[in-house]
């Protein structure tokens, strides 16, 4: 794999979410975002949500869907900022989670 300059950053809430999960799930999530950092852009792992600037990291483990909501910051370096996470219970991503990630994204750029 080629060297990419993408860096994944987990904000406090995203980090707390990941740390709350079983260790095997944590390892899989880290493994998946390392793939992204290494330039492997796969829709199975990382997908832009419709009608928003929000993306989701997708991790499937033992039949559970783990989602970390994220956005890009490419102003100086290329960062993917993970805002928070959920265990997804249905096909549809809850719009309140997307709105929450969008709000965090706006705050992030306002305070930058």
Structure in words:
The chain has helices at residues 12-19, 23-37, 95-111, and strands at 6-10, 46-48, 55-61, 64-73, 78-88. The protein is α+β, with helices and mostly antiparallel strands. The chain has a 5-stranded mixed beta sheet with strand order 1-5-4-3-2. A hairpin with a 2-residue loop joins strand 3 (55-61) and strand 4 (64-73). The longest helix has 17 residues, at 95-111.
Task: List SSEs in N-to-C order.
Answer: EHHEEEEH
- Put simply, the count of helices is 3
Tell how many strands the DSSP assignment holds: 5
What percent of the residues sit in helical stretches (DSSP H or I)? 25-40%
Q: How many angstroms does the end-to-end distance come to?
A: 32 Å
Strand order of the largest sheet: 1-5-4-3-2
Beta-strand portion reads 25-35%
Give the structural class: alpha+beta
Major beta sheet summary = 5 strands, mixed
What would a concise description of this structure say?
This protein has a five-stranded mixed sheet with strand order 1-5-4-3-2. It is α+β, with helices and mostly antiparallel strands.
């Amino acid at each position: 794999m080629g060297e990419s300059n993408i860096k994944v950053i987990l904000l406090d809430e995203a980090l707390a979410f990941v740390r709350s999960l079983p260790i095997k799930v944590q390892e899989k999530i880290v493994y998946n975002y390392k793939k992204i950092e290494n330039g492997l852009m796969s829709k199975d792992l990382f997908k832009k949500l419709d009608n928003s600037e929000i993306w989701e990291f997708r991790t499937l483990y033992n039949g559970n869907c783990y989602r970390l909501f994220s956005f890009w910051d490419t102003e100086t370096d290329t960062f993917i900022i993970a805002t928070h996470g959920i265990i997804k219970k249905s096909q549809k991503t809850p719009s309140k989670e997307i709105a929450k990630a969008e709000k965090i994204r706006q705050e992030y750029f306002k305070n930058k």
